[in-house]
Amino acid sequence: MREYLQGGANDEVVRRIGRVRLQPLVLKRGMLIAADGGSADTSLWDWLHGMVAGGAPVPRYDGDVEVLDPAGRRVVAHWTFVRGLPLKITGPTLNARTGEIAVEELHIAHEGLRLERTP
């Protein structure tokens, strides 16, 4: 939103819509274990490290984000983003004294986000 002041009209402001600025997605999750039950899934870390290493072209991905009901059976909300790039990945604090769950945080820059209708 941009505000424009009009000369002589001191009691009003004209507001015009400007370019939209998209905020990065911030996703948090517990560390996922691979399907074989062995080690942690490193696919997000590999995506970030590939970009940091300077591999060209930088791979961009489209993706979906779903929010499930508390039982985990039904999709409550579904977003689709396009041409995502990893901005930041934060790993768990790894403090044995706290006993907290290991949580990863992923920041994704994107070129569009849309809330889709859920069935």
Task: Characterize the structure shown.
The protein is built from one helix and seven strands. It has a single domain, classed as Hcp1-like (Pnp Oxidase, Chain A), CATH 2.30.110.20. It is 8% helix and 41% strand. Strand 1 and strand 2 form a beta hairpin. The model has no long low-confidence stretch (mean pLDDT 82). By secondary structure, the chain is mostly beta strands.
What does the secondary structure layout of this molecule look like, with pairings?
Blueprint: E1 2-5, E2 13-16, E3 25-30, H1 43-52, E4 61-68, E5 75-90, E6 103-109, E7 113-116
Antiparallel strand pairs: 1-2, 3-6, 4-5, 5-6, 5-7
Helix content: under 10%
Count of individual helical segments:
1
Mean pLDDT: 82
By CATH's scheme, which homologous superfamily applies?
A: Hcp1-like
- The low-confidence runs, each spanning 5 or more residues with pLDDT under 50, are none
Total separate domains: 1
What general outline do the C-alpha atoms trace?
elongated
Order of helices and strands: EEEHEEEE
Fill in the CATH topology: Pnp Oxidase, Chain A
Termini separation comes to 34 Å
Number of strands: 7
Structural class: mainly beta
Global Rg? 21 Å
Query: Could you say what the CATH architecture is?
Result: Roll
CATH class: Mainly Beta
Largest sheet: 5 strands, antiparallel
Strand content: 35-45%
